[in-house]
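Instructor's aside before we start: the two examples that follow are unrelated to each other. I chose them only because their records fit on one page, so don't look for a connection. First example below.
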Amino acid sequence: MDIQFVTEDNVTLKGQVVEAENAKGAVIINPGTATKTSFYLSFAQFLAANGYHAVLWNYRGFCENRGGSLARSDISYTDLGRWDIPAVINKTKALYPQLPVYCVGHSAGGQHVGFAANCNELSGMVGVAVSTGYFGTMPLAYRLRAHLFFKAITPVSNALFGYVRAKDLNLMEDLPPKLAREWARWCTNEDFFFAPKFARKDPFLRTYRTLEFPVHVYTASDDEISTEGNTKNFWKHISTKEPVKFTRYNAADMPRKSVGHFGYFRSANEPIWQDILASLNSFNERAA
């Protein structure tokens, strides 16, 4: 089922719902930055087969919500949590007012939840690879790739085209210029967007809320971004009503011996899907 909803700052966003029979809850799948919405479709179908409506969508400027050229776009990274995530929460609650609403947030899709003014209307969140993106704790090879992307490819592409043409390089979806610059700055600091120097420039970064719902975070030993250090450095800044649960997979124990930053949502790693489902079922028991 296709859906459409409008943010408080009057941006129209599109998505779709993979509906379950006799649903016991609705799950919003917040994608990682510049990740195709369709990447999560198999996982959404898995959730629907196990009793949860799954809401697939993306942020302004990406995929079905790109809306034309990104050249010199003013889309900010903080727009994700300030405007877009609140809108999808409102839409999901309007669609299914009798059901609890949960979130599976991948990477930035979990990072930004606490910026949403209505985040505590969620009944639980599974954070998948949710950490800071600090360059310093990444494996050396990946760190060099990240530096190349943010310090060379990004400024050159912005200068030539007015946005980051990452899709042409098979790296990710294209990036709005302002969002890319913010992302690059945050990744230079171990405290990411919680660093005081960023909050001084953008007071909105001081509005991260206490999370009043249960949270379970999943990471993997070979995740190039959500390393142990980056995971700890993110969650040490988050206030929660109850302790956050963490599960860290040994990638060597996985079916294909690897997970990385994206493999959590690949069908080969369905054991991870089963664990996420177990977390959602646990949240659901508490919400009943």
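Example two begins here.
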Amino acid sequence: MTTVDPASPDALCFAFSGGDLLVVDGEKEKVPTFGEVKRSGLDLRLVHGLAPLEGRECVAVNLDLDVKAPAGTYLRDFRALIGSSVDLEFFLRAGRARMISDWHRNNRFCGRCATETVKSAGELAMRCPRCGAVFFPKISPAAIILIRDGDRLLLARSPGFPPGVYSALAGFVEVGEGVEETIRREIREEVGVEVGEIEYFGSQTWPFPDSLMLGFTATYTGGEIRLQEDEIEDAGWFTVDTLPTLPPRLSIARSMLDAFIREMTVKKEL
């Protein structure tokens, strides 16, 4: 990994203190420039280049956990941006910055011999100078599954969801498990039904904390809904006309649901 000090002080600076993003006062979806953050005197533990946003250079910055926001800025809970009107590309840049920040903070010391790590030249990695262990950013693959039965969808809500929100089922891929195995296991465990055909929909990075969401649709083949009560608060079958409150527009779950709604709307119009 190359730590960079951008030539341009006008680079957009996605600076994180734990799960909080440094934003401009009164502008919950605007970050300060790198020059502004650097002049504030904050201890920048890591500065790493990101892809440009609307033609502007961007950097990820890792701040101390107990940092105080400088004048003209404040620390905003990044998760709170999900339900806002924030632009998707802004969210993705900020999400990558958060994942890099978390990874750097969690790998300051070698997990094998406890020696302080150093940045590895030319790649996004931390290296132990004593035993040679290399630590790359963690990526946790997870399957998210929209169960279909004709014009019906099986949606569920977890206890941690906002009030009234239902979504597709989801679960992390376990060690030694293929994604298709994850899908059938998660469905069976969480709602007790069986599925047949599985079709890939798409993927999305999800920085809570380091997920790669792999979206699929699955065809219902049988079984009655039986809830895994420690994971699922409620579940049921819905049509386009009876849909509950849906997940935020930035999520792949919402993209999958919107695709289903469009499909059903076209069929009604034929």
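DSSP finds four helices and 14 strands in the chain.
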